[in-house]
Amino acid sequence: MFHKTGFVQKSYLSELSKTTIKFDENLEFDVVFKCFKSNSYLIENIKGDLEITRITRTVMGREIDVTYDKINNTFVGDAILFYAFYITANIKIKEMKIEKRHIGVRTDQLGLLKCYQFVKGTIYLPASDGNLKLPYYVTKIQKNDLTGNDIEVLIENPYYVEIEGKKGDYKMEHCSNQDISVSLTFLYDPSISSKPSETSFTDNKKKDSFHATIIDESRPQSTLPSESTKEVNSYWYEIMSNERFADMFFVSSDNVKIPSNRCILYKASQAFAKIIDETSELPVTINVEEFNAQIIKASVDFLYGKNDSIKGKEIEIFKFAAKYNIKMLMDACCSYFEESVNPSNVCEFIQIAYSYNFEELKQKCLKILVEKKKEINASKFADLPKNIISDFFAFF
Question: Which stretches make up the BTB domain (predicted)?
Fold first, then answer.
């Protein structure tokens, strides 16, 4: 279905290059200066189903019509004057659908969630070949000291539906001591397929979103940069590791001073952010009595983009990350634990899993304890906490 609509666009013209007259995303043309002798202009590269109905120029405040040669798409003009281009165009009218949906979670349910655990739901919107399915996640996150919010609601949007007037994923924060009761408006084309395109699916997996990595788990996975970003990481590492611009220092247990940058650490850790906010002197100095310079330096390098800096030091680095609540670093170490757990280290890894509620690591460790019990050091197994031993026997 089409509707004929009028548009007008005003502009000065160039004698050196083309001037693009843009009316809409799909309606535009170029005005190109052709001849100094006759001051003629050519209209070319017409985009869209449009017709030029009038061209005017403004002289001493008056709008005067310009003769337009429709056959040759030319007119005579003067670059110092202001021109107006009038067109009519056939605009396709699309049917749109507006739906209201409600998300509700009670306070007593929110209170059961531990940090980085979530509950999942789905929003269904009617489409031509079924229902659009938009999964949403209600996740317990670290408390925002400014707002008091500790719940994040994320709606994944592979169909680019407009949610409250915005396309893409929809995110909001909430406080766990109040019921979530939100009504949202969804605007979309009902003729779109209920099956997201391959491009949409791929883009969805790449989103820089906390929940893009936890669809099937109760904790965020590590999102280590891929091969394609190594060059970028190297670039930023070179910049951030320049000691000349350090404005924060760690003093290690072996009395070594490790330089760092407040802007990186403020973003990486709420614990560091609190220290920085409460310190008036520069540079900021943090005494770290439990960890040596090698562990601190490797942790800082990882935050600067040097992804392999933690290799071979994951357990000690995890302890450092846990002390200062550096989530990204904890996730990277936990990914290593999941990949490398075996009978020789399972007793150590399972205690980490239980302490920080890493469910997948917990299940992998329990499975190894059961299946490889004969290969596990008996004294280490006997020293495991009672709750782990209890779950071990229940796992059979």
Answer: 246-341
